[in-house]
Amino acid sequence: MTIDWLATLAEQGEIAKSKAREVATLVVKPELPIEVASQLYRDVEKGAQAFDRILSDMEDADVEDTILEAADTLADLWSRLSVASANKIRELQGLPPITMPESDD
């Protein structure tokens, strides 16, 4: 079975954008219950892990570099969502935020 990697990336991009909107909405709420923040983090991590498996499959399939570059950009978005949701939990716990190194891109 041949996989349409462009369609897969488009679908995954929509999932990531939807989760990004949810993260952006929730992390700015000062009184967000920690249970909600924790569930958000778990959901983001689940999405990130699912995408990591797809990215690994893409690498194994030896897809074109341009498609892999797009996938890497999407993986970076998942990483940033993970840090943002983890930082909301840390904020609610009175801990300092996690910082991510700036991208070279």
Report on this model:
The protein is mostly helical. It has one domain. It is 74% helix and 0% strand. The chain contains three helices and no strands. It has helices at residues 5-27, 34-60, 65-92. The longest helix has 28 residues, at 65-92. The mean pLDDT is 93.
Q: Care to give the gist of this entry?
A:
This protein has helices at residues 5-27, 34-60, 65-92.
List keywords for this structure.
105 residues; mainly alpha; 3 helices; elongated
What's the layout of helices and strands?
Layout: H1 5-27, H2 34-60, H3 65-92
State the shape: elongated
Give the count of structural domains: 1
> How much strand?
under 5%
What Rg do the Cα atoms give? 15 Å
Q: Which series of helices and strands comes N to C?
A: HHH
